[in-house]
Design goal:
Family: Belongs to the Nudix hydrolase family.
Largest sheet: 4 strands, mixed
CATH class: Alpha Beta
Catalytic activity: 8-oxo-dGTP + H2O = 8-oxo-dGMP + diphosphate + H(+); 8-oxo-GTP + H2O = 8-oxo-GMP + diphosphate + H(+)
Distance between the termini: 33 Å
Radius of gyration: 13 Å
Low-confidence stretches: none
CATH architecture: Alpha-Beta Complex
Enzyme class: hydrolase
Structural class: alpha+beta
CATH topology: Nucleoside Triphosphate Pyrophosphohydrolase
Helix content: 10-25%
CATH superfamily: Nucleoside Triphosphate Pyrophosphohydrolase
Protein name: 8-oxo-dGTP diphosphatase
Cofactor: Mg(2+)
Length: 125
């Protein structure tokens, strides 16, 4: 059995893609592990509120895949389209090093391919 992580493609009001820098110095989509009794959308809304201090509505699923986080350790990832509810004054939590805002055509090199594909699908690129 693999851990399950629910991630969201979210854009700032200016249309920039919101990414989080993790402890492996990789950019990733906001989100995290689903808890017992949660739906995937409930998990994602909670995780984004915890990680960024912003509220979102969770839209349709984009993709699901098995991701090798480090050699021999896999996580099942499900990605969803998200939309901001209210203001956007993100605050980075203790879970990440920083928040990044990137133009859709200028995503960072150290962004895993699965996240990149979900962004492409969400934004119709």
């Amino acid at each position: 059995m693999f851990p399950v992580s629910i991630k969201g493609v979210l854009q700032s009001p200016e249309g920039l893609v919101v990414l989080m820098l993790n402890e492996r110095d990789e950019w990733e989509l906001p989100g995290g592990r689903i808890e017992l009794g949660e739906t995937a959308p409930q998990c994602l809304a909670r995780e984004i509120a915890e990680e960024l201090a912003v509220e979102v509505s969770v839209g349709e699923p984009l993709d699901s895949y098995l991701f090798e986080v480090i050699p021999g350790k896999h996580v099942f990832i499900s990605t969803y389209r998200c939309q901001l509810l209210g203001g956007f004054v993100p605050i980075v939590s203790h879970e990440h090093k920083e928040i990044g805002l990137f133009a859709p055509g200028q995503l960072p090199v150290n962004l895993p391919v699965g996240y990149r594909l979900s962004i492409t699908k969400a934004l119709g690129l």
